[in-house]
Every structure is written in structure tokens, then in C-alpha cells.
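Sample intake sheet
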Amino acid sequence: MTTHNEFGGRAEHVIQGRDIGVTFNLPHRPSPALAGLPPCSTTFVGRDRQVRSLIEGLAPSAEGQAPVAVVTGPAGVGKTELVLQAARHALRQPDWFPGGVLFVDLFGYDSARRVSPSQALVTLLHALGVPSEHVPPDLPERSQLFRTALAERAEAGRRVLVVLDNASSEEDIRHLLPSDGSTPVLVSSRHTLAGLDARLQRLGLLPTDAGVTLLRDVLRQACERDTRVSDAPQDAKRLTELCDGLPLALRIVASLLVDRPNRPLSSIRQALEDGHSRLDTLSREERAVRAAFDLSYEQLSADQARLFRLLCLNPGPDFSTEAAAQLNGSGIPEADRLLDGLARMHLVEFGRTDGRWRLHDLVHLYAADCLRAEGDESDGGESLHRLWLHYCGVSLDAKDRAFVNGDDAQRAGSRFKGRADALGWLEVERHCLMAVALTTHRGGDDVVCVAIALHISPFLQERRYLDDAVTLLTAAVESSRNLKEPGDETILLTRLGLAYRDLRKLKKSVRAHARAITLSRKHKDPHGRASALNNLGLTLYDLRRFEEAVDAHAKAEKIFRRIGDEHGAAQALSNIGETLTAVGRTGEAAGIHRRAAKIYRASGDRLGYAQALGGLGMALRNDGKLKKAVAAHTKAVSLLRELDAPHPLAIELGNLGVGLFMAQRYKESRAAQEAALEIFERMGDRHSQAKVLGNIGLVRQKQEKWTKAAQAHTEAAELFTETGDDHGLAMELENLAKALANKGLLAEAFESFLLAAGLYEQVGDTASARTAAKWADVVCEVAEELDAVPD
């Protein structure tokens, strides 16, 4: 089905076959856990005993030990580094963690970037392959689902390691802890988290000799001939003491020495001693870190210091070199040079990928203090303005490149080479863009919030980040009201309705679209009204209110034609065609799809054209014209592969599979369905997974693989239950009953037919209810003849 808005996106559905010969033993494809950890230091000393202790508790054979280990200690002592070193060592052990590793930085000591348990669970569940529509709204339910997913993986031999960094309290992580007893967790915190049943690893200050070794190793890594530590052992020892054995402070001091190869240790020792005297009102650890920060900050050039202060303004968990350049008001090469210098000083850290950076939470707070102390508020305001313009401008370019007609031809002025390039940028920047939109919403900069939401919500919907989409669009609707921009509010409301539809929250979807229709009518916005009507029709279709759906799409098509929007009219026509196909009016549907395809082709919308071909294929298929149907689906699949449109491609592969099934090409049908299933699993579209699994079950029945058929239908039924589709569930129960009957399990088949009949009746499909009830009678008669009468 075709969604309408200015980006021309589309979200179709798989048509599930109904056939008497048309079950839960497909190979279970493990959803990948996060495969990466932040980079570790190559100069790690003085913690061998602690690493061994942590690793011992991670081994699969470590029965009886508490599965949670908490590494605690003061800020800057190296808790995160210890956890990462232990995790990396454990991941290298054969068969310890075949399921991978889950890592989340909770930013528990940074109020500006703190990640709530609920937000963390969304990230963790997505990493485990749980789709947005299956993530519960409440924290306890999310926690239970997370624990269940981890337990299932452990039981299936795909044990996962969980790493929770920077937890500030027991409540930060209580809902993030597994309950299966075999999935281990590494936690870092400045607090002991005494309320948890955990192994506690208190991380003390580095011993003096280890601190001296760290200084020496860092200097020698930069220059093998650097002998300053061995030449001045007393100064090296004193530097370690002044840094209070804190690796963060020691690395900063070492970086200052690396930057000035001729500077004697005595010089920096004296500077640190002066700093301690100046900061004597602070605690010992605070003095050590702050003195090291101050000493490093004082060595920065004016340009470096200014950029460092401004970096704290970025609201996301990390940032790109380009974003730093916007804050700085300079070119990218200049920003890159300055960031390299700050990284050498250990004032910024390298991110997970090249060209991305992050701030340690202590450094983030220090940079904010410096910004306030230097009185840079006006400069900071200008910098934020540039940053907001950057995110708004590039996200608009990415949206146009990826979603306007879906065409991959180079557009003049675009920074992106093609759709894939634009989608890649949106993926990398997703968390930052979300943070910008929500930060500006809270700060009253509603224009930026609305702009970002308009630009990235198509991406969030296509890539199934539906929880993020609802959060963002809800905030943006409020911001658009503050701005008194009814046109934007209408678009945002109907996009919110689409997100709710994909989450299978159909009543909320209807309400959002209805509000959009009312608003557009009030403000005489025909285009907004047509878009909202068209998208409302999609939800009415899912509610099986087919006549109302056709009426909504027809009204939308009429308005689009009246205002001269041929492209919008084509989208509405496609939806009318698919709805008519669903109610058996296949001849009319085929003609309508041909009209839509002609419009799409003339306008250069290859994505729309491909999907119109898919709709035509479904109509032809249901009209018995199987050769033409398969040809249309095959052409659509080929186009969608070229366009890097994975979700529409998966839908069309599923539809091709049904066409091949009806053409009795069962082996090819199953191959197409399994290719679709793989994409749906990767994207987390649970509802479409259910439909494809049901279709695979139908193929298995034709091949007389009754056990495999029953297993596929059972898994599909479970997914329909989870996604709240009672009609889909009824179909799967009916098809499961047929597979069970063919296996000779007549009592189970009888029960499934009755359940199916009851569900059909509940959703208003009386014809199907009667059919299922008749099958139940047939099974009962056969059972009586065989003396296997069901109770």
C-alpha cells in the first residue's frame, strides 16, 4: 500500500495465500547482537590481576558465581578501560560468546547525555533483533522481553556478553540485568551498587611503579628513543603521585610530554604541583584530574581551546568532524587538525568509526565549565545556530536524495552520490539527529525540531526505527503547534499515524490521521487533507474496513487530481487497486494499477513504478493470469534491487513467492519467501515475517512436508498474536489445522479449526468463519470413523 507525503514513500504488505494445500522448523536465524566495543588502549598496565579476576567469572564453566560483575572506583581510574580489556579478552575465547556482545554507555554521570533504562532497553532489544513494533511501551515489560531474549539465546548456545558502562545507581541497571543465570554482565560505576547481587571489583589507584610504566610506555610508543622516564625516575614517580595514580590524568600528562619531546619531566612536575596548590579546596582525585585538565588546557592554542569549549554543546553521544567544523565556524580540514591535537591531549576520544569523536563525561563537564568561565555564551549561541543549520540542511538533502522519487541519478547540488549514500549518512547520524530535535524541542527552538522531524521521519519509518519515530513525531507535533504551523502539523500527524500503523497500534493511527484531516479541512489545505485521507485508508485496510478504505483513497485521488498532483493521484490509485484485489475485484484492480504505473513511469519515480508493478502482479495473480503475474513481480524485484530499498524489496519478494506458489513452482517460491524473510528479520518487521512464514507453510504443505508446515504456521501464528493481527492469526490457525490433519493429529486439528472459526467471527469475516467451522465438522467425522473422536 502506498503512503503519501512529500517524500513519496510507500509501505506495502504481503498478500498471504489461502490454499487447502497450502508450519515451526525453519532454521532459526539468530538476530545479531552488537558486534563492536569501543576501542581499547594499546598501553594498558598494572591491572593484570583484575583482568584475570573478571575473565574467570565470564567463562561458561563459572557455575555458581554471580553473573554480574561491577567494577567500581573514582572517576578517571580506568573502570571503562578495564571492562573493555576484559571483554575483548573474553570474546577472543572460543565458544565463550558466540552470540556476541551488547555494549551501552549509560552516561550516568552526565546529566546532558544520560540514557534512561527504558532508552537503553530499546537499544539493546533492537541489537538483539527485536523490532520496534514488538518493543513494549512500559519499562517492566521491556525488561522482561530483554531477559527472555537473552535466556533463549543462552539456551540455544548463543550466549551473549552484556557490558553496561557508566551506571550511576542500581536503578540505572536493575531492569537491564539478565535473569537466566548464565548470561554475564560487566558493569562500570563510580558507586559500589551494593543493592545488587554482584561480584565487586574495587579498582584502586595505579601503584606508583605501574604509573611510571604507563608514562614510559606512552612516551616510547610515540618515540622508541624517548628515555625521559628512565633518565628522571624521581620526577616520573612524583608525576604519578601528583596524578594520584589516575590513568586518565597520567595519559593527559604523557600527551603533553609527547607533544614537546624536549620538555623535561621536572618542568611538568612543577606545573602540576602549582596546580595542586591552586585547587587545594577540591578532593584528592578531583585535584589530580582537574590539575591535569588545566595543565593540558593551558597548552592548547587559542583555536584548539575555543573548539574544545564548544564541543560540549553537541547534544548527541558522539559527533562528526563536519559537525565540529560547524561549531568552530571553520573548514573540515581545520577542524580535523584541531581535533587530532585534542585527541593527542586526551581531551577528545576517537569514536567507533573514522571521522567520529566523543568526549569522556569528565571532559564534557570540564569543557562546559570552561565555556562558562570564558564567557563564550554569545559565541556558543552562534555556534549552535550553525550546527542546527548544518543538521537541518544535510538531513533535508539526505531526505530528498533517498525519498523523493527514489531515483539514484545524480542531482545537481546534492552532497550524496546516491540513495545508498544518503541512507548511510542518516544511519550514522541518527542518534545525533534525534538528540538535536529533542534538545531543541525542550529548549523552545521549535523550528529546528519540526525541520529535523520532517526530514528524518521517512528514514526512521523505512528502517523500522518506529519507537524513535513516535517519540520524535510526538515532540514535533507539539512544536508545530507552538509555531502555529498547521501545514507542518498536518504532515507530522499523518506520519505519526503511519508509525502507529506499523507498530500495529491501529486505533491510535486512526486518531492521528483523523486529527490531520480535521486540521487540513479547517485551514483549507487540500494537499494535506488528501495525504491524510490516503494514509488513513491504509489503516482502515489493516482493520479490514475495506469499503471505508476504498472511499478514503478515492477521496484522496479526487483531491490530488483537482490540485494537479498526478504523483499523489498515482499513489492513491495504487492503494485503491490493492484494496480491490483484496476483496476480489481483480479486473478493476489491474486496470487501476496500470494507470498508476503509467503515471509513475512518466514522472521518473522508479520506486513507485516498481511497486505499481507489484500491485499489478497481485491483481493478475488473483485473476489466474499467473505467467503475467510472475513477470510483473520479477521486474519489480529487479528494479527494487537496483534502488537499495530493502523493505519494499522484501515485500515484493514475498509477493513473487506467492505468484510462484500459485504457478506450482514450489522450490522457487520457497526461495523467494526465505529471501524476503531474511530481510524482514534483519529490519525487525515482525508482522511481515508472520505473513511470509505462513506462505512458506503453504509451500511445505504442497510438498507434503507436514511437520515443517505445521512448524512454520505455528511460528507465524505466534507472530500474529504478538502483533495483534487477529485475522492473520485465524488464517494461520486454519492452515495449521490442515497440516495437523494431514499428520493424523485430528484432535489438535479440530481444536485449531474451532479457534480459527471463532476468531474469524470476532473480526467480522463470516464467510471464512463458516468455512473453518465446516472443516472442523469434516475432521470430527473422520475422527469418528477412526474412533479418534476429539473431546
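Comment: The beta strands are 68-72, 101-105, 161-165, 185-189, 199-202, 319-320, 349-350, 356-358. The chain has a mean pLDDT of 85.
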